[in-house]
Amino acid sequence: MDISPALKAANAAREFLSNRIQEIPQLAIILGTGLGNLGEDIETSDSIAYDEIPNFPISTVESHSGRLLVGTLSGVPVLAMQGRVHLYEGYSAQEVTLPVRVLSSLGIKSLIISNAAGGMNPLFRRGDIMMITDHINLQGANPLEGPNVDEWGPRFPDMSEPYDRALRDLTESSALELGVRLVQGVYVAVTGPNLETKAEYRFLRAIGGDAVGMSTVPEVIVARHMDMRVLAFSVITDECFPDALKPVSIEDVLAAAASAEPDLRRLISNVVTSV
Ligand code: HPA
Q1: What's the rounded Cα separation, in Å, for the pair 82 and 60?
Q2: To test ligand 1's pocket by mutation, which of 191, 212, 240, 254 has the most ligand atoms within 8 angstroms of CB?
Q3: Separation of alpha carbons 8 and 93, rounded Å
Q4: Domains and CATH numbers, the chain
């Protein structure tokens, strides 16, 4: 029987990691732009560079370090991906999501994802944490393109509620308890790497977006294809109001991500104890 190249690639990575990691946790976290320091809260027993893992894509962006951490967060066993790759680096949607395929096939059941995003909802401020309630895929690419691998999931996966309701409820209570300001909304995924024009922000807001970014949606599609539970956060790193738009640099984006990081770290550290 022909085995799909994507399945073969994921199997090699799974094989390597299942030999290296003694006990596979139930939960994994993908740490996005400027949020890699959440890794400091993880008591690590192992740290595996992506370039050691067969077929793992390597980031070409400096702000991502590219390590898989194995350890515990608030006493809860986790795997944490410190850094991810993006479509704009030239990777395909299948390549970008190979790590999520591998996590699921190792036995991970729930996935927490973080990213940096531009805020389009006028009630949002730079440095806010947005819990993603839904998404719009405008990347013009889909990780499920091509022959379906039936052992991974169905040809036409449902997307009526990609972001797990129970995990969101839990997060809302946790934010209240911790006194962390948490906003909620729809994430629009674009390819990047340029930020948007005023006309594009106006359009993205008009079609229902609250925040816009360049990642996460391919990972969520694959996670849902494999029936993982998903919880995702955007740190609002710039205010994308078309009638008052100011130039934004990557330094501004990283500084805003860093300012929100302590609260996001507290929130995630608290939520994982109840996942
Ligand atoms: N647009 C797209 N991606 C982003 C932005 C933005 O304004 N800010 C951070 N990531």
Answers
A1: 14
A2: 212
A3: 16
A4: 3-274 (3.40.50.1580)
Nearest in space to 48 (alpha carbons), one of 17, 91, 18: 17
Going by alpha carbons, the residue nearest to atom 6 of ligand 1 is 118
Among 133, 102, 99, 128, residue whose Cα is nearest residue 30: 99
Q: Tokens representing 140?
A: 């013009």
What's the angle, vertex CA 228, arms to CA 224 and CA 233, rounded to 5?
80
Ligand 1, atom 5: closest residue by C-alpha: 118
pLDDT of residue 4 exceeding 90, the answer is no
Ligand 1 center to 220 CA (angstroms): 18
Q: Are 129 and 232 in contact (CB under 8 A)?
A: no
Q: Label residue 9 by pLDDT band (50, 70, 90).
A: very high
* Nearest CA, atom 3, ligand 1: 213
Q: What is the pLDDT of residues 248-259, one digit of tens each?
A: 888 888 899 899
What would the DSSP string read from start to end of 148-163? --TTT--SS---S--S
Q: What residues line ligand 1, using a CB cutoff of 6 Å?
A: 116-118, 192, 195-196, 212-214, 237-238, 240, 253
Omega within 30 of 0 (cis) for the link into 54:
no
Q: Give buried/exposed letters for 197-234 (b at 16+ CB in 10 A, else e).
A: eeebbbebbeeebbbbbbbbbbbbbbbbbbebbbbbbb
Specify the residue with its C-alpha closest to ligand 1, atom 2: 213
In the reported structure, the alpha carbon of residue 20 is separated from the centroid of ligand 1 by a whole-number distance in angstroms of 36
Greatest mean pLDDT among 23-37, 53-67, 128-142: 128-142
